[in-house]
Amino acid sequence: MLGKSRLIFPGEKVGCGAPLAGGPSQPHRASPSYGRTPGLLGDSRLETSLGGVGGHVGGAVPPVMFLLPQVLLAWSGGPSSSSMVWQVLEGLSRDSAKRLRFVPGVVYIDEGAACGQSPEDRARTLAEVKLALQTTGFPWHAVALEEVFSLPPSALRCSAQEAAGTEGAYKAAVDSFLQQQHALGTNGVERQSQHCAQDPQSPAGPPTTAQTQALSRLFDSVKTLTAKEELLQTLRTHLILHVARNHGYSKVMTGDSCTRLAIKLMTSLALGRGAFLAWDTGFSDERHGDVVVVRPMREHTLKEVAFYNRLFAVPSICTPALDTKAPEKASIHRLMEAFILRLQAQFPSTVSTVYRWVRVGTGGGGAGGVGPPASSVLEPCSHPRTSEKLVKAPRAGCAAGPRCLLCMCTLDVDTADSATAFGAQTSHLPQMQTPVTQARAAAGPCCCAGMGGAPGCCKREDPRAQVMEQLCYGCRVNMKDLPSLELLPPYILSEAQLRSQRATAEQEIREYLLGDSEDEAGTGES
Amino acid sequence: MGTWELSAGRPQSLLEVVVLLPASALSRSLDLPAWVLFRRSRPLPPLQDPTMPAPQCASCHKARAALRRPRSGQALCGACFCAAFEAEVLHTVVAGRLLPPGAVVAVGASGGKDSTVLAHVLRELAPRLGISLHLVAVDEGIGGYRDAALAAVRRQAARWELPLTVVAYADLFGGWTMDAVARSTAGSGRSRACCTFCGVLRRRALEEGARLVGATHVVTGHNADDMAETVLMNFLRGDAGRLARGGGLGSPGEGGALPRCRPLQLASQKEVVLYAHFRRLDYFSEECVYAPEAFRGHARDLLKMLEAARPSAVLDLVHSAERLALAPTARPPPPGACSRCGALASRALCQACALLDGLNRGRPRLAIGKGRRGLDEEGPPREPQPSRPPASEPVPDF
């Protein structure tokens, strides 16, 4: 099914490497009679779209081999992502009828510091994780969340995909493959350990105590669990993207299941991220430019994943998360989860109804649930075969419109004082202005210091207002719960400063600029 | 009078309002169980020392502060709060250009707190906006409930000297009252879905009433909590069409329909209650007898929990709804006219005519269900069907 849902565009930079055989311990193969791996990853759509420029060429023809994309699997140890990794293993093995044609790597983020785990627990978990990762046989990266403190500001910039010609990419890919082969020999294990050695942090040594403390301080300073979870997700995403960029992965696969995505959809709605639902929960998320985040497990409910894991004895590791043992009302995420699961018990189609807001159908009954009749929801809004009710509204390139600093979506705030929800939170009415600002300076939490940008508002902390202005509505509301922005990792603060300096400079020279300088500015920014 | 009526059963947002009144004044106005509930549920303001006197009003600095605004935490006296509330409604109307000068405005009055506050505020602002007001009340024919509400509306109309028109379902819709509809839909073994009928028919009735008085605009008292609940509900039911129609500040009035708007849309429910309290407005505060069956109850519970977790959740939801990017076919088709009554319709028959058709034929579910509503996917029969937001709030409103 080559079409708009292809994830590889002509001329895209792809990694190279030989498709790996299954790991040292072959997975238990209880495939159905026709030999096809059950699950979405056996779906023709995903396979073809990840199949690279060569497509389905029979046999191991050498030229195709060099253009296989590298895909990073984000593994958290939980059931969904373990199931995803397992299915990738199955799909790549020589016995499967339709082999997946990409080169996977696995990344695990150690979030123990943010969750308040003791160093002994962390070390124990990490040992288990490493053992599990080694048995997969893929190149793996175990990265601690403390690495965010050494991320460069370029992690927050979305770079456009390279528009190199196919020939150039092919030649470069062949060259680097030959070099790699020459340097390493063909031993997969050694290549894996070289990957580990290429990590900025050696897997044997834990992160420095200073970084761990800085991270704990950051998370302890956040007032609400909701904001903590959002911050954790943001940092985790940035870190995974950074790892992907460093090691040349063009795609990242996350193991979000249908249930989780339905919950995430409702949670994003409640957090004020209604404009970005299609990005947050859609099949592919291209807002980061060169690295695309893909959610292959999105058609499977948690129940199906649980059955699959049990039937095929998929190993998973249980690690405590930020909201483990938290009461139900502690955060919006927990609330929504409990609510949706409770409603699902009463109205069994709740999850699928919510999920269908961002469903991608295949036109006649996809791998997932039964779809509605074709005339109702299917619409070639921008994809010929999608059936989404929500679209990714601004579809322009990276430089169109200012982007949120943290989530990299186009800003969805309008001017204060307008007759909208945002305006209602930032408006100051004339007769109340002077006494209000005085009262606000005296009173404790001040909503306008969080929102920023309102006229006549006393900007108590310039750096804070500076950062706030560059955030979308949802991120602003989250940052309100973070009293001091200095604890944020330096890459965020320096990128914020850079952007605001750029904006001020542009303000000054605006009258001298001819036409639209956005495109030039975009390509200049790396 | 300024009695603070609390309805039994479902806890109201009234109980969560933080009001800095001395306990003696409070105990006089509440009966014992309600007072106990109130004391237990009242969250203490974080920075307040109970032994210290209440702070000064933040705006006039003269009077003692009587309340803290739920959204901003600002301490204000009663008069300043009411002034601020009215100013914000005025700002919404002016900035959104909702009611041009010279408009004849039909206010949907149900006797509940929202429409009472709306009528009062608009009456205060009418000179500034240059509009004239008419009250339109709808009698759905729900025994034991609507009669008392209508009595409240009549008292209000008399006190404020506003013209009142009452339109009844029985007159407009061929003898069908809500009780009759409920009886007719009750036997099928599914949930009754009265709210579907009531919501659709009430819109029609309101439109008819507005035409009778010669109005140019229709306003209803939906507040921010109502909007947030509607968003949640439509999302949970996959109702993209309703979401596309409902976002924003109201419909501009396509086809022959009158433009509708909701001036209280950005005011939170707690503030509406506070305003009614400080202005000593008389309203009717019981919930509809059919309300417990409505799906909206789930959305309401969820909203209450969300608000407890994050106070700005209501406005965040409204913001999300405003910014939803819906696919073109998820939006409803451009409206035409109903072949029977000439009202706005996206199909051959408008929803009201379709529902009445079903009722008259003895098949009340005719217009509710998969065949007619392509976007509806709910399979299990015991679910309530998708509908316009039903009027199942504890305080009924349009």
From TrEMBL, chain A:
PANTHER family: CYTOPLASMIC TRNA 2-THIOLATION PROTEIN 2. It is found in: Cytoplasm. Its main location: cytoplasm. GO terms for molecular function: nucleotidyltransferase activity; sulfurtransferase activity; tRNA binding. Residues 19-38, 188-210 are annotated as: Disordered. This is Cytoplasmic tRNA 2-thiolation protein 2. GO terms for cellular component: cytosol. Belongs to the CTU2/NCS2 family. Component of a complex at least composed of URM1, CTU2/NCS2 and CTU1/ATPBD3. SUPFAM superfamilies: Adenine nucleotide alpha hydrolases-like. It comes from the Eukaryota. One of its GO terms (biological process) is protein urmylation. Pathway: tRNA modification; 5-methoxycarbonylmethyl-2-thiouridine-tRNA biosynthesis. Plays a central role in 2-thiolation of mcm(5)S(2)U at tRNA wobble positions of tRNA(Lys), tRNA(Glu) and tRNA(Gln). May act by forming a heterodimer with CTU1/ATPBD3 that ligates sulfur from thiocarboxylated URM1 onto the uridine of tRNAs at wobble position. Residues 188-201 have a biased composition (Polar residues). The keyword Flavoprotein does not apply. Keywords: Cytoplasm, tRNA processing.
TrEMBL record, chain B:
Residues 366-398 are annotated as: Disordered. It is found in: Cytoplasm. Residues 105-288 form the tRNA(Ile)-lysidine/2-thiocytidine synthase N-terminal domain. The keyword tRNA processing applies. Pathway: tRNA modification; 5-methoxycarbonylmethyl-2-thiouridine-tRNA biosynthesis. It is an enzyme of class 2 (transferase). It holds the Pfam family ATP_bind_3. The keyword Cytoplasm applies. This is Cytoplasmic tRNA 2-thiolation protein 1. Belongs to the TtcA family. CTU1/NCS6/ATPBD3 subfamily. CDD domains: CTU1-like (cd01713). Residues 382-398 have a biased composition (Pro residues). InterPro entries: CTU1-like_ATP-bd, CTU1_C, Ncs6/Tuc1/Ctu1, Rossmann-like_a/b/a_fold, TilS/TtcA_N. GO terms for biological process: protein urmylation; tRNA wobble position uridine thiolation. Gene3D superfamilies: HUPs.
